[in-house]
Specification:
five-stranded antiparallel β-sheet; about 10% helix
Amino acid sequence: MSFDPRLTPARPDLAAAHLKGRVDAARFVEGTLQRVTAPVAALRRSPAPDAPLDTEALYGERVTVYETTDEGWAWGQLQFDSYVGWLPAEALGDVRGEATDRVIALRTFVFPGPNIKLPPLTALPFASRVTVARREGEFAVTDAGGFIPARHLAPLDFVEPDFVSTAKRFLGVPYLWGGRSSLGLDCSGLVQLSLQAAGFACPRDSDMQAAFGEPVAFSGDLASLQRGDLICWQGHIGFVSDPGRLLHANAYHMAVAEEPLVKAIERIRKSGLEVTTVRRLVG
């Protein structure tokens, strides 16, 4: 039986207990649920600081940890999109309670008290999850005692009404392979963050996203495309934004950029890549 290693917590020496009888491994463990306590935690392909960055976990996300090494690495699976890899153990902590709110600003500061003149304790990126214990004036007070501007938060069930508008808020954010925050993100990170904020359970990588939604017949006629369509190449993805425009995080601009779709298709074609599919989201 074949499994996607990006989404399957299994190695020859260790696998999740629920995979027993389905994969071969020397031992099986139940795993421990933890949460991300750093603003952004890098998830890498191997337990080394210079290993490729596959994705990032954001503050408040849950992770099932199956192994923690003496060198300070935790191997586990993200609860939100099921990605598997190695995270710094110091970026994880115990689960205190259920999150109540998420950050809807591109980035927000956490203050030690109800005063914006105080030196911030930290900064949290868009889509971070926090537990709000109470409100105090214009601040939301977290269970850890941090004060966050209440206007930068929304309840977990809040749905952004327009995922293209959400994606446009990231214009100018630097391109980062594997990135998934307002400090830096890649093409599929932009798509995932924007769609998740709109209530879609979007997978992480561009090849997974190229099977998301419904296929749209496309033979090169740009008039057949609608705002919000996902246009996909091998290894790349972006949104059709305004008519004839492409919104995407890309290495050509080294940023999230919006440009004429014709120009982007021609440039990408010169690198040997053609549009593979167009997907339309419904519901």
